[in-house]
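Entry:
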Amino acid sequence: MHYKKPIRELELTAEALLSWTKTDFGQYILRGEDNKIANKYSKFPGFRCMHLGLSENLDLLINTNQIHSFTIQSNINTCTGKGSLVSNLSDLPIPTGVIDVAFLQHTLEFSCSPQAVLAEAGRVLAPGGNMILCVFNPLGPLGLANLPMRIFSRRPQYQFHHLRVGRLTDWLSLLNFQVEEVSYGAFLSPLNDFSAAVSSDGSSNKRSFHIAWENFCSKCHLPIGNFYMIHATKRVSRGIGNMSTGWRISTRTNLGSPIPPVGSKRVEKIIDDMKYAQE
């Protein structure tokens, strides 16, 4: 889909987006994502956890099960230095296959090239590692309101890619990922009073309705939340080879006989036969 206004680089809009995350609506969405992650995705095994997001979200990293957790920002002005570093999200300064858990909170839709960011995050993730994607839902209240707002407003929070679940699932499949679960959250409209909806005190009828509506949508798994969350696991594809011949050759020897010394003719013959069979 072609838009009239191209998506700018995240490093240019990071400060404005960080200010937006501190609004009532931004806090409402981030709080819903953090609660879902803490309840379902905070006990992954591994040693290293990486977070890419619009804000550092140190509260999320505190709840993870990994010993070494850090966040990567695209702009130095949004980085406080507490377990954070600044880098181009499509070219991370991390070796391949060393990260066990990766959280991507709205970095795909606000990046100029979401495919490059996703591929780079998949590169640094270790085989069997877990990736959690938090993306704005095009069919949710915010996604539907964004269609006219991105035409009449130049604010960065309205300029993002509309990424459907099926589209991201296809990208993950091409990167050798298996999608384990897709869930939705934050079902309230942007026109609501979010500070009252998420506060712990008060028992107004409006707040009760908000809670009931959130619970109903969550239990029914309705795809109308402001965000959706994808849990994917990295798999390593292996080619199909005929190893049965080599296996049969290696098992022809007498298992009860002593192991011949290295360099004997019998060992050299077995190794040559196995190499020939593999070729």
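The beta strands are 48-53, 68-73, 84-86, 99-105, 125-136, 177-185, 227-234.
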